[in-house]
Amino acid sequence: MKHLTLILAGAMVFAYGASTFAQGAHPGGPPSSPGGRPSGAGPGSNSNSGMSGAHESGAATHTDMSHASPSDVLSHNTAIAGKIQTLTGQDAQAACAGFKNLGQCVAAAHVAKNLDTPGGFDALKAKVAGSRAVSLGKAIEQLSPQANAKAEAKKANKQASDDLKESSS
Fold first, then answer.
1. CA-based nearest residue to 103, from 84, 131, 78
2. Per-residue pLDDT tens digits for 46-71
3. How far is CA 37 from CA 47, 119, 166, in A?
4. Do residues 109 and 95 touch, judged by C-beta distance below 8 A?
5. Which one, of 56, 97, 55, lies nearest residue 73 by Cα?
6. Is 86 helix (H, G, I), strand (E, B) or coil?
């Protein structure tokens, strides 16, 4: 019984210590300021909170677009809209309608182009953004069973990421 109590007490100490560490306890300073902001997360810092000094002051930045709908981003970013039109042969607004985010749309466009998917982009879009949406990998498996779905999805996501980075600079 003493061993069980000792083991449970040790596990609790370990779990508490791990959660404290995960919450950002840093040597030489408090884990957070009274306002709840992590220490060192001033307006010029590069914290993971997603907030920058410009964002907090209300100025529009390109990072504001990361949470916008695909149609909002496309209306402000003609470079990526042109890329999508080239990949799909469709107007970018129409092509990306129904996707959760722009990255998903661009990745699907790359897969359709890379694999010359049966049914083209529209068939892939129906699988990924339709009412019974599946992952990009599952859609590739269903439409192009001969392809390495995992590798193709990874490749397309990398291409989409590169396109989005390129078009935002």
1. 84
2. 444 433 333 333 334 444 455 566 76
3. 10, 50, 32
4. yes
5. 97
6. helix
Please name which of 144, 153, 164 lies closest in space to residue 101, comparing C-alpha atoms: 164
Tokens describing residue 8? 């449970």
136, 78, 134, 133: which is closest to 109 by C-alpha?
Answer: 136
153 pLDDT exceeds 50?
yes
- The answer to whether 11 and 18 have CB atoms below 8 angstroms apart is no
Amino acid at 154: K
DSSP label at residue 145: T
For residue 18, with 0-12 CB atoms within 10 Å meaning exposed, 13-18 middle and 19 or more buried, which class applies?
Answer: exposed
pTM higher than 0.70: no
Amino acid at 140: I
Per-residue pLDDT, 70: 74
Residue 116 CA to residue 120 CA, distance in Å, equals 6
Cβ–Cβ under 8 Å, residues 107 and 97:
no
